[in-house]
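If your schedule permits, I should be very grateful for your opinion on a structural question. Please examine both parts with care and let me know of anything in them that strikes you as inconsistent. The record follows directly beneath this note:
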Amino acid sequence: MNHEALAAHIRAVPDFPRPGILFRDITPLLASPPAFTAATAALAERILVHRPSALVAIESRGFLFGAALAQRLGLPLLLVRKPGKLPSATTAIEYQLEYGSDRLEIHVDAVQSGSRCAIIDDVLATGGTAAATAELVRSRGGEVACLAFLLELDALGGRNRLGAATVESLLHF
């Protein structure tokens, strides 16, 4: 399935979650087994060239792609979650949002020192969550092999917040 066919499975929803926002809804892609399979296959190809030793998925839609990719690539899947969701000892990072702050956590023993981690999420928008996750991986001794997204909202400039890290985005809007 080519990029245009995949993009046709992304629904534009005006004024969600508030007026003036054009939301890109990935649920039609998830509801289409051929589209989801094609998207994960294409992401896997892009990720594999960076030789990751683990995948780090960002809560919550990143888990959908992360699980499929981990299974396809035969790599461990590490989870980054909102506070209080992980059952064992965690380390955290607080980061700034446009209007406030947020916090992410990972198990302290998840990232092995020297491991090459591919960070996975569904959408790259402003880049704050992805940048915080990359910092969290580095703080645990890991290296960011790449950051991979189903789609990137180019006008929001999220890629610029990720510094020199390699970004792989399958679709651009």
Remarks:
- The chain has one domain: 50-172.
- The chain has a mean pLDDT of 97.
- The chain is about 30% helix and 35% strand.
- Residues 33-48 form the longest helix (16 residues).
